[in-house]
Amino acid sequence: MSSTNNSNSDAQNIIADEMQHLSLGDDLELGSPMKVEETPNVKSMDIETGDIDFEYENKILAAAHGKRPSEFFSNGDDVIEEALIDDDKSINPHFSYTEEQMLKDQDAKIRAFNTLASSPRNSRSSSASSFSGHGRRPSVIVPPVPPTLSITPKSSKVNSKFSYNPTTHEITPKSSLSPSIAINPAAAQRDPTLMQGKQKLDQLKSEFSHEQNFKLGSILANDHNISAEEAPSIELVSLYKQIKWCLDTRKKYQDVSIQNPDLNPKNSENWKIYPSPPSPFWKAQNNRQRNLNHRESSKENNYTNSAVFDFEKCDIPGPDESTDFVADNEDTYQIISTKTKEKLINVPTIRDYYMDLDKIVNIASDGPMKSFAFKRLQYLEARWNLYHLLNDHAETSESKRNPHRDFYNVRKVDVHVHHSACMNQKHLLRFIKHKIRHCPDEKVIKRDGQILTLQEVFDSLNLTAYDLSIDTLDMHAHRDTFHRFDKFNLKYNPIGESRLREIFLKTDNFIQGRYLAEITREVFDDLESSKYQMAEYRISIYGRSEDEWDKLAAWVVDNKLFSHNVRWLIQVPRLYNIYKKGGLVQSFKDIIDNLFRPLFEVTKNPQSHPKLFIFLQRVIGFDSVDDESKIDRRFYKKFPFPSKWESENNPPYSYYLYYIFSNLTSLNHWRKNRGFNTFVLRPHSGEAGDPEHLIAAYLTSESISHGILLRKVPFVQYLYYLCQIGIAMSPLSNNALFLTYDKNPFPAYFKRGLNVALSTDDPLQFSYTREPLIEEYSVAAQIWKLSNVDMSELAKNSVKMSGFEYELKKHWIGHEFTKVGIDGNDIEKTNVPDIRVAYRTETLQTEHELIEYYNSIEGV
Ligand SMILES: [Zn+2]
C-alpha cells in the first residue's frame, strides 16, 4: 500500500511540472496576448475563438472532398463559431482559456438560474431563451413544442417511470413529487435554513422511495399556467423522422453483425474463463509467495495467469461439418450450408452501405438539421449545468456516505492503448540497458545477410549503455509532432533507429519477439499489482501474409501472455498502398484474405490452428489505424470490388471499414452458432481528417477511439449521444498531435452525456509517470475541475465500454450492471451516486421520448 501512495504523490509532482509545461506550450500555440502583439496580422476572429488550427483543418476538409460541395461541413462550424464569438465579448485577455471557460460556465449557470427563478410564468419565451444565451439570433427551427392534445400518439411509452413535459423539458417521477418539497432555488439561496429543511426532507424522501432523485429547479413543473400549444411544424416532424431513420439504420447494421455484447457467447452465464479469475486477496498471497521463493504452496488460482496457464489443458473443439465459407462475387466471405450451398445470412452489400452512408452525410450537412442538432446539444449542456448547480452538494454527500470506495479503488479500463507503446520510457530504457549489460552476445537481428549481436548493434550506433538516457531515446512526442503524424510514427524508433524498434518492439523478429514478450510480462505484473487498472492492448495484423495470425498467436501462447487485467484488440493499419508498392500484395483482396481466411478456418476447425483458437478467446475485436489526416479522395464514382482494386492508390477509410465490417458479420454469425466469442469493430475515428469517417464508424462500429472531430459535426455528435456509442478519448495524445488540451471537446461531451472514457493511447510517447492511466485522469481532473464523482463515472463508463467478459464486469461494477438506470448502479462498487445515474438516464430517455413522440404523429 505504502508504495502505491508514494508513487501517487510522485505522480502528482511530476504532473504538476507537466501542467506548467503544458500551459506554457499552449500559450505559444494559442496566440496569447504576447503572441498577438508579435503577429498583428493574425485574424482577430481566430484569436478570439482560439481556434487557429481550424483553418488548417478546413483546408484539409476542402481538399479531401474534391468533387463534393466544398462547403461540406463548414456551416456547422459557423454556427459554433458564431456562438463562441457571441459569448466572448467580455474576454479579458489576462485570463487563461480555462479560467475563462469556467467563468462562462458560471455565467451560463447563473443565467439559467435567473431565467428559471424570475420568469416561470412566461414559459414560452423563457424556455426558448434559457439555453441560447443572450441576444442570439433565433433560428429557423424553434425548439420542440408539444402538439395539441387532440393528437394521440400511435404508441405511448409504457415502461417509463417518469412523465415528460415537452414544453419545459421537465421530467417528473410518476409517483409525483409533492409541491411542498420543491423549493424555489432563488428563495433557497436567500434563506439557508430553507435549504437545510430541504435536505432533511430529501433524506426522508430517499428513505421513502428511490424515485425522487435530483432537482432541475422543479419550479417549472409546478406551473399550472403552462398549456398545450399549437401543432408542431412539418419541418420539425420531418427532422425527427430523419433522426429516427438514422437510429434505425445503425441498429440494422449492429444487429446483423451481432456486435451487441449481450449476444456475445463469452458474456453468457456458462462461459468458462481459463485460467479462472483470481479469488480475492490473490495479490497479497502472491507477494508472500514470491518472498518465500515459491516454497509455500497455495491455491492454484491465486497464481498469476501466466503461471497457471497450460496449453495442454485447453479444450480445442473439433470441426464443424455443417457449415462452410466461400468468398462471394463482391469479395466478402459468406458462410454457407455445406449441404444446400445456400447463404446463411445476408450481409449488407457495399452498394447498400455507400447509399446509407451518403444519405447520412447529406442529412448531417443539411442546414436546418445542423442548427437543430446544435441546439439539442446546447440544451443538453445547459441542462447539465442546471443539474450540477442544484445537485452538486447532494452528489458529494452521497459519495461520502459510501464506505471504502473512492476514485483510486474503482475499476478503470484503459480502453485505447497500443501494445508496442504500452510501457513508459523509463521502463523501456531500463530494459534496454539491462539487456546490453547482461546479454551483449545474444544474436538479435539479421541485417544485410549478417547476424548481429546486441553489442555489435550498439557498437554500430556508437553507443554504450552508459550513454543512454530518456533524451537519447527520444521517443516523447510533444512539440515537434503537432499536425505531423509522419514524425510521430518515427517516434516509435528508439534513438530514431528502426533497428532498435525491430529488436525491442516487434513480435515477429529474429528472436521471435522474446524481448517484447519479457517487457510485456513486466507491464502485466505492474497492472496486476495495481489491481484496479485493466487494459485492452492493440496489436497489429497487417494483412501482408497469411501466416501473421499463427505467428502472433504462437507469440502470445508460447510466452504465456495471459492476464485477467488484459485483453487484446487487433489493429489493422491502412497501408495497402505501401504493400502494393513493395510487391507484397496484388490487389486489396489479398489483404482481406490474409486478414480473414485464417479466422474462418479456425472457426470451421479450431484444431487446424489450436494456438490461434486460444488466442482469439482473449481478442475483443478489430481496430483500424493510421493517419486519418491523410487525404482520401474519391477516385471512383463507384468503388471496384477488392479483387479489382489493383491500383496503387490506398482505398478510403470508409472502404476499409466496410470490408472489415462485412467479413466480421459472416464470421460473427458462425462463431456465435458454434458458441465461440464474437468480435466487435472499434476503429480510430475522428482524430483528424474527414468527419465522414465518423459516419462510417457510426454505421459499422460498436464504439470508437478519439472522436474529437465530432465537435465539428453537431448532427453526428447528437447521433453518437442518442446511441451512446462509446468514445475512448485521449486528450494528452491529442495535445501532442492534433488539438491542444484547452480546445479538447472532452468536457463538453461529458456534460452533454456522451458515453466517454479516458484512455492513454501511447504511454511511451505521451506520459511521464509509472501509471499513465492515472496521469490521464489527473491531468483532466486538474484542468477541467472534474470532481471525484465525475472521475468515478468516467471509470465506470470505461468498464462498461470495454470488452471484458460479463463475469468480470459484474465483479467490478456490480451484478446488475446491464440494467438501465439506477437499477444497474452499485454505488458500493462504482462510487457513482444514484442521482447522477438517474439524471443521465432520464435525460437520454427524454430525447428518445421526443423522437418516438414526433414519429408517432401521422398526417403531418
Ligand atoms: Zn491510438
Notes on the protein architecture:
The chain has 860 residues and is an alpha/beta fold. It has a domain of 541 residues: Alpha-Beta Barrel (TIM Barrel), CATH 3.20.20.140. The protein is built from 35 helices and 15 strands. It has a five-stranded parallel beta sheet, with helices on both faces. The protein has a four-stranded parallel beta sheet with strand order 12-13-14-15. Helix 21 links the parallel strand 8 and strand 9. The relative contact order is 0.13. The N terminus is likely disordered. The structure holds zinc ion. The site of zinc ion has 5 residues, from strand 5.
CATH architecture of the domain at 248-275 and 344-856: Alpha-Beta Barrel
CATH superfamily of the domain at 248-275 and 344-856: Metal-dependent hydrolases
Per DSSP, what share of the residues sits in E-state strands of 2 or more residues? 5-15%
N- to C-terminal distance = 65 Å
CATH structural class of the domain at 248-275 and 344-856: Alpha Beta
What low-confidence regions span 5 or more consecutive residues with pLDDT below 50?
A: 1-11, 14-95, 119-198, 200-212, 218-230, 288-301
Helix content: 40-55%
Radius of gyration from the alpha-carbon trace, in angstroms: 28 Å
The number of helices is 35
Annotation, overall tally of beta strands: 15
What do the pLDDT scores average to? 76
Report the structural category: alpha/beta
Overall spatial form: globular
Bound molecules: zinc ion
Kindly identify the CATH topology of the domain at 248-275 and 344-856: TIM Barrel
Report the biggest beta sheet as strand number plus sense, adding barrel if it closes. Answer: 5 strands, parallel
Keywords: Hydrolase, Metal-binding, Nucleotide metabolism, Zinc
Family: Belongs to the metallo-dependent hydrolases superfamily. Adenosine and AMP deaminases family.
EC number: 3.5.4.6
InterPro entries: A/AMP_deam_AS, AMPD, Metal_Hydrolase
